[in-house]
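Entry for the shared binder. Reason: the reviewer on the internal report wants the predicted structure included alongside the sequence.
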Amino acid sequence: MAYFFKRYHPPGTAPGTFNVSAIEVQVPLKIHLTDYTDQDYLEKDLVTAEECRQYLHRDSITWVHIAGSTDKTTLTDLGKLFNLHTLALEDITNTGQRPKVDSFDDQLFVIMGLPAISDNIVTIDQVSFFLGNGYVISFHESESDPFEPIRKRLRNHAGKLRSKSADYLFYSLLDIVIDQAFPLFESLGDDIEALEEELLRSPTRSTLEDIHYIKRHLLLLRRMLWPQREVVNYVIRNDLGLIDEDTLIYFHDCYDHTIQIMDILESYRETTTNMLDVYLSTVSNRLNETMKVLTIIATIFMPLTFIVGLYGMNFGINEQSPWAMPELRWYYGYPIVLSLIVVVGVGMWIYFKRKHWW
């Protein structure tokens, strides 16, 4: 997993230059248009961006969703039709941008991070939005469609979407992007819980690798999700002229969700840090236990080694020396020494047990 995955221009490139040539994996381009009022609903796939022109002057809400790898022609046509700023279009092609919000004269440009997890790999997709008078344009370079629940609500006339203006649609899209973090954190939470049980039971080298892997995921999530709170806060705090007063309360709900996400993220980061400490402590305790057992065994065998070393000296029977070993003449000397070894060994073991050293 890379810490830095942003596509960027070579230094010195003129501002407003599209970086479409740097796209590593080409995803087929799809342009999906949704146009609706409280009574009417239209949904269709477009071939070119120019086909959006006929819907610009209708008294309706127009939502254009660009999925897949965006080409230069599509970006140029959209820029001309909706008067989109070239710097904003440049940021769309340079994916991996930090979540941010830019306010233009009659438009609001927002970049968000859409988190996802697949095969235990966390990814952050860039999702970009333009909010204008009566329209919303969204960009997402992926085959998956995270906004299908919004379309389903629009088709079924469920909730307030069809009766509200474009700012409410914009809120709904932001809300679904932000809330994608909750199922991801639920999955990460299960992994962290399993690692905690493994730590207490029998930690291994792979346990340490898994902890570091999750910490890297959390680092990526913090870098890409933390600024989203600033984005929503900017929308709430500034009078942008594109968001009605009765819609702002819903953005407050989005802001609350970003706070919850950050709280969960920080608690997970603290938990994984503590897990590293527990792992190191467990390994240290295991080493101490091993060293204690080896020390006790060595301590028990020290007097035994002394005894067999003493009687292993090959001095024969010396009738002329008072310092000769009298035990060498004993008939039962060998079993007596063996018994002494057993008594000393068992005695030391009992002593260690009573001292709770074993």
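Summary line for the report: The first strand starts at residue 30 and ends at 36.
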